[in-house]
């Protein structure tokens, strides 16, 4: 069964409002070390551990989860399959934890909807830094600290609500975005008509964290196109500028 790292006397209203981290990892030594490190260095977090997809579902059914650290190699269900399943039903941020360091696996994880990834072996401090960055993007308006955090950005019938961090289509229906997708779309909208390189987009959306690579921007662009373009293979909204980067073509209206 899953493990929770909170002391009973800490299970008060304050702790219930703290970010709840779920580690899905079948290696008990790794999950224990992560849990103990977070308990020592991020005492405001609640931490639970599940050994696979079935236990993860049990934990999620029991209460709110704010971030999932998800191992790829699990005994009952592949982590990438779990990530795809999560993305179909929730907006919970996901950090992929993998022993596979090649670029293909990192790309595949991002294509499945992960917000970030970290490769084993890793420094627990790096994992904590990435968790904090993902939580900031998900809950505090993003890593770039935009001065327009309380506005609505509108284009071609779409509405990007920067306060609630949601995207609505022309009929008012919410379109699911991950935290990374939201940040990228916001940056593009705020700089409509300007060609932005991959390096600029990395700096504006996620910062220069170790391990980020240019292809992660390409993957996020591809994911956004599938959600907002009428024909993702022949995009009109987010255009590729050969050897330069990307440009967001529509006029954007800013509503306070």
Please specify the SSE layout and strand pairing.
Blueprint: E1 3-4, H1 13-16, E2 20-24, H2 28-41, E3 46-50, H3 53-62, E4 67-71, H4 79-89, E5 94-98, H5 103-111, E6 116-119, H6 124-139, E7 152-155, E8 158-161, E9 166-168, E10 174-175, H7 179-190, E11 195-196, H8 198-205, H9 214-228, E12 238-241, E13 245-248, E14 253-255
Parallel strand pairs: 2-3, 2-4, 4-5, 5-6
Antiparallel strand pairs: 1-3, 7-8, 7-14, 8-9, 9-10, 11-13, 12-13
Helix pairs in contact: 7-9, 8-9
Written description of the protein model:
- This protein is an alpha/beta fold and 256 residues long.
- Helices cover 39% and strands 20% of the residues.
- The chain has helices spanning 13-16, 28-41, 53-62, 79-89, 103-111, 124-139, 179-190, 198-205, 214-228; strands at residues 3-4, 20-24, 46-50, 67-71, 94-98, 116-119, 152-155, 158-161, 166-168, 174-175, 195-196, 238-241, 245-248, 253-255.
- The strands form 3 sheets. Strands 1-3-2-4-5-6 form a 6-stranded mixed sheet, with helices on both faces.
- Helix 7 crosses helix 9 (214-228).
- The longest helix has 16 residues, at 124-139.
- It is globular and about 50 Å long.
- It starts with a strand and ends with a strand.
Estimated structural class = alpha/beta
Shape: globular
Q: What is the oligomer described by this structure?
A: single chain
What is the residue-averaged pLDDT? Answer: 83
Main sheet?
A: 6 strands, mixed
| Beta fraction | 15-25%
Number of strands: 14
Distance between the termini: 48 Å
- How do the strands line up in the largest sheet? 1-3-2-4-5-6
Order of helices and strands: EHEHEHEHEHEHEEEEHEHHEEE
Low-confidence segments: 141-147, 208-212
In angstroms, what is the radius of gyration? 19 Å
Helix content: 25-40%
Number of helices: 9
């Amino acid at each position: 069964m899953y493990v929770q790292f909170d002391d009973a006397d800490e299970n008060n209203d304050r702790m219930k409002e703290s970010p709840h981290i779920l580690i899905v990892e079948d290696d008990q030594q790794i999950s224990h070390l992560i849990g103990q490190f977070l308990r020592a260095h991020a005492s405001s977090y609640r931490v639970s551990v599940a050994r696979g997809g079935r236990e993860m579902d049990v934990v999620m059914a029991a209460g709110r989860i704010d971030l999932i650290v998800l191992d790829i190699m699990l005994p009952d269900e592949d982590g990438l399959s779990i990530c795809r399943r999560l993305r179909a039903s929730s907006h919970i941020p996901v950090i992929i934890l993998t022993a596979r360091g090649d670029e293909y696996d990192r790309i595949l994880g991002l294509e499945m909807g992960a917000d970030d990834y970290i490769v084993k072996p890793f420094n627990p401090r790096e994992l904590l830094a990435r968790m904090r960055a993902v939580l900031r993007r998900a809950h505090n308006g993003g890593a770039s600290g935009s001065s327009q955090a309380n506005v609505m950005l509108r284009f071609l019938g779409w509405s990007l609500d920067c306060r609630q961090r949601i995207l609505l289509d022309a009929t008012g229906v919410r379109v699911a975005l991950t935290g990374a997708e939201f940040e990228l779309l916001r940056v593009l909208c705020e700089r409509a008509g300007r060609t932005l390189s991959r390096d600029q987009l990395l700096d504006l959306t996620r910062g220069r964290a170790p391990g980020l690579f240019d292809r992660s921007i390409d993957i996020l662009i591809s994911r956004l196109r599938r959600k907002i373009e009428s024909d993702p293979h022949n995009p009109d909204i987010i255009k590729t500028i050969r050897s330069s980067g990307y440009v967001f073509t529509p006029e954007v209206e800013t509503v306070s």
